[in-house]
Amino acid sequence: MVDAVFLALSVLTIGSAIVALEIRSLIYGSIALMITLSGVAGFFLLLDAPFVAMFQLSVYVGSVAVLILFTVMLVRRELIFNKIEDKRRRYAGIGLMLALMLGIGMIIIGSGMKAMETNSPSVDYKQIGQDFLMYYSPALIVMALVLAASVVGALTLARREDITNDQRAD
Amino acid sequence: MTNGLIDFVLVSVALLAIGIYGMAVKRNAIRMLFGVEMIINSANLNLVAFARFIPNSQGQTLALFSIAIAAAEVAVGLALIIVAYRMYKNIDIEDFRSLKG
């Protein structure tokens, strides 16, 4: 059975996910997305994974959501507020969403996953550090290179060719 | 633990379905990125939930890798959106005609 904290967290997470997609203003939408990501961090805390929860908070709420907010502020004002979409496509999308939820949900409820409970103690986060530094250390290095490459790629993409440095000075 | 595995998996399915809805319906490029974020988060929630109930630590390790890669993806995606906005003065993906190839 679920407890009250779980119910409140799931209502918060799913409700603000819907708000993030449906609200008119993109700025409020990105703030709602921030609440969704914090809700997922709360689920990680419920799952006894405090390290992943803090990582989620610092990476998603701290950097990704702020990056999205700044990008939204770079866009023209009337584009933030207008909402153009087909009515037909929208109803089809809602139908697809409900079909997915019901279909996969029925399959999962019908499977043997319901009986899965655990009383074993949670994994110590020292174990995660050992994983990172011993078995997965090549993957960690590759991940660092991928992050560096993506930052350089993003900078190269967003650079403006038409403005040179001496023009920027005045 | 009072919450079973199935509760977390059901929340993750709901988040996945909302993300797919956002990607299928919205024409605003930034809102489509919101949908991608939701899908990635539902995958991470699944990873951590299964890692708690097996239990082992490798699910959490994989979730950490996944979060880091998702951050890189968002950086590149937002840079692409800014470039497209500079070219077309719009963020409606129906306007990005010459990307058709």
What do these coordinates show?
The complex is a heterodimer of chains A (170) and B (101). Chain A is built from 8 helices and no strands. By secondary structure, chain A is mainly α. Chain A folds into 2 domains: 1-83, Four Helix Bundle (Hemerythrin (Met), subunit A), CATH 1.20.120.1200; 124-161. In chain A, helix 1 runs antiparallel to helix 2 and helix 2 packs antiparallel against helix 3. Chain A is extended and about 65 Å long. The model of chain A has no long low-confidence stretch (mean pLDDT 87). The mean pLDDT of chain B is 88. Chain B is 76% helix and 0% strand. Chain B has a single domain (5-100), classed as Helix Hairpins. At the A-B interface, helix 1, helix 2, helix 3, helix 5 and helix 6 of A face helix 1, helix 2 and helix 3 of B.
Topology of this structure?
The complex is a heterodimer of chains A (170) and B (101).
Chain A: H1 4-22, H2 26-46, H3 50-74, H4 77-81, H5 87-110, H6 125-135, H7 137-158, H8 165-169
Chain B: H1 5-25, H2 29-53, H3 58-88
